[in-house]
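pls design
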């Protein structure tokens, strides 16, 4: 089995816009194929918004951007009843969450009440507000961003919110040669208006169905369960939903790499990105880098 041509087209289209971030692009494609949401945590100006827009354009998805602030209300995300002058009655209007790819920019700047308005949409792919329940379009993906440096005026995402994100990743600063290309070309998003879809939403849904058919052998499942048990013996926070998401991400990575079966490397590669925001170190002072290294070390101790 080889990497599906649709995936190759997605990679090529996004990497042409977001320069030098092939690993981050692959992680986003993994989440997209797995049907999971993405949390991008990084400093301003490294291309988080551009990556989200490029992902939407390459996959032919409708796009909506919500700027989260401390005075944002749930109704401004979900929608609500508004007065229609023509009909002289209240009419329900859907909010910006009604898109195939929703960019929740600086999610942690909103109050916990507003953050929680996203939970049903992210988990159930539907919204209930003012007596109206409507299904969100398929495929549906939330890409949320947050700035890790500022702590004033922000509300840290609670565990229940973090658990809705399949992956967490950072972009980091570009390499010297990549930044030189950016300096010569200008802002990354200047090429976005010319970007054409590399696949259709229907093709993306078909790829998501293919992920579900990627095989996991009995031996691999035993290894995976041993890995889950080993991590739970050392950390808190790995729920059954988190374990299911981890395995689904491994399936998506296998498809991304052109394999019809999950291998231990898929489990190990996805672990820091799927578990880093879920697992809680028993020591509250553990640094993230050391924490993620310990996750990998625990996995290596599990026999294949």
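designed seq:
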């Amino acid at each position: 089995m080889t990497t599906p041509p649709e995936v190759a087209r997605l990679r090529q289209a996004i990497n042409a816009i977001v320069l030098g971030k092939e690993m981050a692009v692959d992680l986003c494609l993994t989440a997209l194929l797995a049907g999971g949401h993405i949390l991008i945590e990084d400093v301003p100006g490294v291309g988080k918004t551009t990556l989200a827009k490029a992902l939407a354009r390459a996959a032919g998805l409708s796009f909506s951007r919500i700027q989260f602030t401390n005075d944002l209300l749930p109704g401004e995300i979900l929608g609500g009843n508004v007065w229609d002058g023509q009909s002289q009655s209240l009419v329900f209007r859907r909010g910006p969450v009604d898109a195939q790819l929703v960019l929740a920019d600086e999610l942690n700047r909103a109050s916990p009440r507003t953050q929680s308005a996203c939970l049903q949409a992210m988990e159930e792919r539907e919204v209930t507000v003012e007596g109206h329940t409507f299904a969100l379009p398929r495929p549906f993906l939330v890409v949320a961003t947050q700035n890790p440096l500022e702590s004033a005026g922000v509300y840290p995402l609670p565990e229940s919110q973090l658990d809705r994100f399949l992956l967490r990743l950072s972009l980091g600063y570009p390499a010297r040669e990549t930044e030189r290309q950016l300096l010569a070309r200008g802002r990354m998003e200047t090429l976005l208006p010319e970007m054409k879809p590399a696949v259709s939403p229907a093709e993306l849904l078909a790829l998501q169905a293919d992920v579900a058919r990627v095989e996991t052998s009995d031996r691999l499942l035993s290894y995976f369960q041993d890995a889950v048990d080993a991590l739970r013996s050392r950390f808190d926070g790995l729920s059954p939903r988190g374990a299911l998401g981890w395995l689904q991400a491994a399936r998506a990575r296998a498809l991304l790499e052109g394999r019809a079966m999950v291998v231990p490397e898929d489990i190990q590669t996805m672990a820091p990105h799927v578990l880093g925001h879920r697992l809680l170190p028993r020591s509250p002072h553990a640094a993230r880098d050391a924490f993620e290294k310990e996750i990998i070390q625990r996995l290596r101790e599990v026999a294949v």
